[in-house]
Specification:
Helix 2 packs across helix 8 and helix 8 runs antiparallel to helix 9. This protein is an all-alpha fold. The C terminus is likely disordered. The chain has a single domain, classed as Hypothetical protein af1432. The protein binds fe (ii) ion. Fe (ii) ion (FE2) binds next to loops.
């Protein structure tokens, strides 16, 4: 099996995941370059972005498209997808990306899964992929809630930084890349005015 074949299977299983993977790939490349990574390294992060959710092949479609919040049992199933994605990446000759894929749901404050790692143990490439992933997930329509506006997604992203779950420097850089209105959070603007 090669990457194109794997992605085709993902698309047949859940078209929304395929769209998400393309978005995250593009965002990872752009943010990677903006954060100073050389072209080849940004490409590698982008490829990890393209593959990061392929483990969702192991999650039944009725769970992925459930028009309500997941129950604890369903969430347990979903929580395996980073490790299963890492395994699938190895099968398409991308073993070097497996660790990044496995860690893409870790959060800087240790509240992520599967390992509950904290910032110092999460590679910066993974922190970058996570920022792009979270923003695309926040922006995407979901069966169980109304679509967020851009402003609401940006506010959610800022609150993830405030509670210590996402890398603030990367969030800021990403919002600038996508031309988000009010890329600078309100508290920073106030500080600027007072200072
Ligand atoms: Fe994921």
């Amino acid at each position: 099996m090669n990457i194109a074949q794997l992605l085709r299977i993902v698309e047949l299983h859940d078209p929304a995941t395929r769209v998400h993977l393309e978005n995250v790939r593009d965002g990872c490349y752009r943010l990677g370059r903006a954060m100073g990574y050389k072209d080849g390294h940004a490409e590698a992060i982008a490829e990890a972005g393209l593959l990061h959710d392929v483990g969702k092949l192991h999650v039944p479609n009725f769970v992925l498209s459930k028009p309500a919040r997941l129950d604890p049992h369903e969430f347990t199933i979903v929580k395996y997808h980073p490790e299963q994605g890492a395994e699938l990446a190895t099968r398409v000759n991308r073993k070097r990306l497996a660790m990044w894929i496995e860690l893409h749901h870790e959060r800087l404050d240790g509240t992520g899964y599967p390992r509950g790692l904290t910032a110092e143990f999460i590679p910066r490439e993974v922190q970058l992929l996570t920022v792009v992933d979270v923003f695309d997930a926040l922006s995407a329509p979901r069966p169980y809630r109304a679509e967020r506006t851009m402003k609401e997604s940006i506010n959610e992203l800022h609150s993830e930084v405030t509670v210590g779950r996402l890398n603030g420097e990367m969030v800021q850089a990403y919002l600038e890349i996508i031309g988000a209105p009010s890329a600078v959070p309100a508290y920073d603007l106030r500080a600027t005015l007072v200072g």
